[in-house]
């Protein structure tokens, strides 16, 4: 009956995006049901859905050996379209609809401060970790420091400074760990760290900076806060790519070079 | 028409992306600086103007609203295609660096938010849902 399996797989693979809608729809339904039945609504359905997505990404990665999680399974390739940068950014922009300009103005200054402070802090933490694990040259420290900012700043810095591919891979891994940790931890600690207002959300976006992490973290915490966090987070990676290989490296080089 | 909403939002996004790339190129880095953020600010400003003049039809608003409602499912699809295996394989260094940045980040939210003073708008919109 291998013919049957092939026809089934082919039928799903012929409409990748539609298969993704059905698959994600089912995952959402399951997650919201679990939220209601198993946690009496205490853990939000979207948080469960995002963690479920990450678990599926792990299974997909183990099973296929690829880099794109469950989207590397051929019949689920549409997940890469649905959750790719194009639709993600389009959906993020759409959340700005209905936000008042006056509100944006009020969150601007703390958001910008958060951006600057946290890029510096992330590079410092990444560089210190790098040093502690024996990567003590300024190039490696700056690259892993960039990775602690986001998984894009790390490789951009590494490429600019000529870091080894091992160090670049580590910097990407650090960035991915950060992004996943932000997705999972945000809804759990939101109240305790004061993430309850648009102002705090803007600061949070500027601090965490990972677009995917903040997008998912805020979605699972309170969808009303999404536009504020998303707005500041989109400046983070560009700012990090600007600062990390230049000022960041120069400072590290002066200290450890 | 629904497509007018997508036209407006898409145009904001393309302009934002262009300006973000322009900023990047001016600063000599191959990264987009704030493209999505610029698009969001544009959408806020333009849609507010159009709504005040009653120039944005219900259908056009529904076109934008659809994508806004698709946000969480899209984020779930995004989560499902992360390279979780490589994050797990990065070893202790990746975990310490990544988690360290996140923990310190959470601690910074309160003090930096306080810089903005107590925002009354913030409280209003939290009450509103």
From TrEMBL, chain A:
GO molecular function: sodium:malonate symporter activity
Keyword Nucleotide-binding assigned: no
Superkingdom field: Bacteria
TM regions (residue ranges): 12-31, 43-61, 73-99, 111-134, 141-161, 167-189, 201-221, 233-252
Record-annotated Malonate/sodium symporter MadM subunit N-terminal domain positions: 9-256
Any Pfam family matching the protein: MadM
Name of the protein in its database record: Malonate/sodium symporter MadM subunit
Source organism: Rhodospirillum rubrum (strain ATCC 11170 / ATH 1.1.1 / DSM 467 / LMG 4362 / NCIMB 8255 / S1)
UniProtKB/TrEMBL annotation, chain B:
Name of this chain's protein: Transporter
Keyword tRNA-binding found: no
Domain of life per record: Bacteria
Transmembrane segments: 5-23, 29-47, 59-80, 92-109
InterPro entries: Maln_transptMadL (IPR004690)
Keyword tags: Membrane, Transmembrane, Transmembrane helix
One Gene Ontology cellular component: membrane
């Amino acid at each position: 009956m291998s013919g049957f399996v092939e026809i089934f797989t082919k039928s799903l693979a012929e409409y990748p995006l539609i298969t993704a809608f059905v698959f994600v729809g089912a995952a959402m339904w399951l997650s919201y049901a679990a939220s209601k039945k198993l946690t009496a609504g205490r853990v939000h359905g979207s948080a469960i859905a995002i963690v479920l997505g990450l678990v599926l990404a792990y299974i997909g990665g183990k099973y296929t050996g690829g880099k794109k999680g469950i989207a590397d399974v051929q019949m689920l390739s549409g997940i890469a379209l649905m959750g790719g940068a194009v639709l993600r950014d389009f959906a993020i922009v759409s959340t700005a609809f209905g936000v008042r300009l006056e509100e944006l103005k009020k969150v601007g200054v703390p958001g910008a401060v958060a951006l600057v402070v946290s890029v510096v802090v992330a590079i410092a933490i990444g560089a210190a970790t790098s040093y502690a694990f024996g990567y003590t040259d300024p190039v490696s420290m700056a690259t892993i420091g960039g990775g602690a900012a986001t998984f894009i700043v790390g490789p951009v810095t590494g490429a600019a400074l000529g870091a080894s591919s091992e160090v670049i891979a580590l910097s990407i891994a650090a960035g991915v760990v950060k992004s996943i940790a932000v997705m999972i931890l945000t809804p759990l600690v939101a109240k305790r760290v004061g993430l309850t207002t648009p102002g705090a959300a803007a600061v949070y976006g500027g601090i965490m900076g990972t677009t995917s992490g903040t997008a998912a973290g805020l979605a699972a915490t309170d969808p009303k806060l999404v536009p504020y966090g998303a707005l500041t987070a989109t400046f983070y990676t560009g700012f990090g790519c600007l600062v990390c290989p230049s000022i960041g490296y120069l400072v590290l080089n002066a200290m450890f070079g | 028409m629904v497509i007018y909403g997508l036209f407006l939002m898409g145009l904001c996004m393309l302009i934002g992306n262009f300006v973000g790339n322009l900023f990047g190129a001016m600063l000599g880095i191959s990264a987009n600086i704030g493209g999505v953020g610029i698009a969001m600010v544009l959408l806020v400003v333009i849609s507010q103007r159009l709504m005040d003049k009653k120039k944005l039809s219900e259908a056009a608003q529904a076109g934008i609203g659809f994508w806004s409602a698709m946000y969480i499912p899209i984020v779930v699809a995004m989560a499902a295609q992360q390279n979780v295996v490589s994050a797990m394989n990065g070893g202790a260094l990746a975990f310490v660096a990544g988690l360290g940045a996140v923990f310190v980040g959470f601690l910074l939210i309160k003090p930096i938010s306080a810089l903005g003073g107590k925002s009354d708008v913030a409280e209003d919109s939290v009450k509103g849902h």
